[in-house]
Amino acid sequence: MRNILLIFVILTRFFCASAQEEESSPKEIFENAVGHLTINNARLLMNMETIDQKGNSKTRELRASFAGIDETKQVMIEITAPDNLKGTKVLSTRHPDGPGIIQVYMPSTGKTRKFRANSRNINRIGNKIPIGHFSTSSYSGFKAISIGKAQIDGMECHKIHLRPEEENTYGIAYVTVDGEQLLRVEQYDQNAQMTGLTELSEYRSTNLPGNKPYPRKINIRETNTDEKTEIRITDIKSLTDPEELDFKMPEN
User: Fold this and answer.
1) Is the bond leading into 82 cis (omega within 30 degrees of zero)?
2) What are the residues facing 170 on neighbouring strands?
3) What is the pLDDT of residues 202-227, one digit of tens each?
4) Parallel, antiparallel, or unpaired for β 89-94 and 101-106?
5) 244, 221, 231: which is closest to 4 by C-alpha?
6) Whole-prediction pTM
7) Residues 152-202: pLDDT tens digits?
8) Residues 92 and 135 sit within 8 Å (Cβ to Cβ)
9) Hey, what domains does the chain have and what are their CATH numbers?
């Protein structure tokens, strides 16, 4: 089972070159939409339920921590339940002058793997930890092209075609014209067949600086396997004075 390559929290808050919608490029619109979801120095608690095509259900509890330390952006996602997966960690690190790095620690092996963060390698992690939804590295090098507008849940949205470098797959993102909220991302294979769908909903304000609306529900579906995942954000808190030790992975 593959982790669905999608979005969520970007490690770096991108700067919009223009405040006027008509002057913003599709890439800027998409980056701004994900940038609105950026949580710096904060921690999320999440419940995640996955149901396969046979109706079997698996639930996990996760903790995601976000910080910027000396211009380095880091995202740590850790499974806190069930017991057989507890302690599994994925750390995404992005330096301002270099490519992103992903580290994966599995308690069952006691080893930490490290590799370059891109869409292909993120898919290798599997669906136990949805790091692809929380790391901008998933979209590193993507090209973005506007393909018009569409209505999603009664809201007018920019429709943006996303294509990774050196791959034949692509995605289509839907970003609200009013407020630049990311509502939906579709994934397609080289034959233009949909392989995945992610929907973000229940945007509500937070108590964090900026009080930016944040989605409390994420629905994910792999259309080729009919596997469905629902992520519920149950709590959002400030991470006070984060240090490098908070984002340190176990040594091999």
Assistant:
1) yes
2) 188
3) 999 888 777 778 899 999 999 888 99
4) antiparallel
5) 221
6) 0.78
7) 999 999 999 998 876 788 999 999 998 889 999 999 999 999 999 999 999
8) yes
9) 21-247 (2.50.20.10)
